[in-house]
Amino acid sequence: MGRVVVDVMPKPEILDPQGKAVAGALPRLGFGQFASVRQGKRFELEVDGPVTDEILAAARAAGEQVLSNPVIEDVVAVYEDVEQGAAL
To answer: Keywords of this protein's UniProt record, alphabetized (predicted)?
Structure first.
């Protein structure tokens, strides 16, 4: 069984109020080294069998057509999750 990750982020010109809120909180919590934050979405898609180039292409198409709002978001990464067995 394989897993594909699709990362979606707001387009650069779109305001990100959640990212701004996190950016404001980080210095108060002792993390002053970060200049800005953008918050996005991560989708994990499991497949039966190995992750192939065709599976990655289908995941990108799903990301662009279904998982994201193409007016305000970009699919920024589609990749195989090779650490899927690791504990988080």
So the answer is: ATP-binding, Cytoplasm, Ligase, Nucleotide-binding, Purine biosynthesis
Structure-block tokens of residue 36? 């800005």
User: Spelled out in words, what is the top-level CATH class assigned to the domain 2-80?
Assistant: alpha beta
Could you tell me if 63 and 74 are in contact, meaning their C-beta atoms sit under 8 angstroms apart?
no
Structure tokens at 9: 């982020």
Q: Which residues of the chain have pLDDT under 50?
A: 86-88
**What are the residue boundaries of the structural domains of the chain, listed by start?**
2-80
5 near 77, Cβ under 8 Å? yes
